[in-house]
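Reopening: structure tokens for the magnesium ion complex, inputs below.
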Amino acid sequence: GATIGILGGGQLGRMLSVAASRLGFKTCIYEPGGDSPASHVANYHFQKGYDDLDALKQFAQSVGVITYEFENIPTSALDALEAIKPIHPNRTALATSQDRLTEKDFLASLGLKTAPYADVTDAASLEAAIATIGTPAILKTRRMGYDGKGQSRLKSPDDAVKALADMNGAPAILEGFVDFSHEVSVIAARSLDGAVSCYDPGENVHSDGILSTTTVPANLTSAQRTDAVLLAAQILNALDYVGVLGVELFVTPQGLIVNEIAPRVHNSGHWTQNGCTICQFEQHIRAIAGWPLGDGSRHSDVVMENLIGDDVLRIPDIAKTTDAIHLYGKADAKPGRKMGHVNRITGHAS
Ligand code: ATP
Ligand code: MG
Ligand code: MG
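Re-run output (same inputs, fresh job):
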């Protein structure tokens, strides 16, 4: 079979590589770091920077199709790659989700609900944003934020100076605080010929801005479940998307509010590895390779628990249980670092 090129060498790249290998593909990762989770399992590794245009060209020439496991890829790198081989998901999907302002504008253009938001570049625009949106609110960097990093919460307008200082001069958006009852996400896939398949929504609990657990089934009415799946399909179709997409949602009495989208396999979809016949990683490889999507129906109820930092020290005890263990091969368990996850089957899907 052909070789799948993956930009990024983290745990998502690792699990994509494993899934690709199971389908008979080889994988080649592009990752500046040496000892990365994906480098332990991929067949080939370009250990080069995203500013090395020659290396990017060689990488593109050596693979059949290119995908990515993180969204912060410089557009200059995309230019070099795109001229040589197809990239899935496409550039529009990547550019849209790289920037929280572009992303919110896109979602609003589809008629989907988001938190109220405004562009913030300086003290004056922050003051204006607070005047229209009010507090509590969250100031977020437009680019590069993840796991709640690059965010500052404003309880009152008095927090404006500190919040702006927290951005370190980076362009930001102010978001009104959404009074949600809980958070869910939809992991959705679209194939090259436009077929769409969505996994059952999962319910997500965060701790210190980092995903802690995902539980399926989520606490949703059947109408909310339908809404979630339809809006995910609307996003996929609007972007002419190929691959797996994660859509994070807030559940409120006024309906589902879209928090953000991720143009890749998603942490809140890890439960599919043990709750479905075809997991999100295989689904993504199938889509980008031009295969038909697989059966993503859920056969089990699952609780996925992330192992963050020292949580991984519990593995000897967890190994005595029936939980399915997934470790990323990271050496040092720094605080806040995602080391692995476990999937606990809690019942048969009804
Ligand atoms: P991820 O690791 O999911 O990419 P991130 O750094 O992009 O995270 P967000 O998803 O925007 O950050 O926010 C992290 C969490 O903070 C959300 O899951 C939610 O719990 C809370 N949060 C974010 N925005 C809002 C909001 N506007 N109102 C209320 N809570 C919010
Ligand atoms: Mg995010
Ligand atoms: Mg998020």
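The longest strand covers residues 338-348. The chain has eleven helices and 17 strands. Marking as resolved unless the reporter disagrees.
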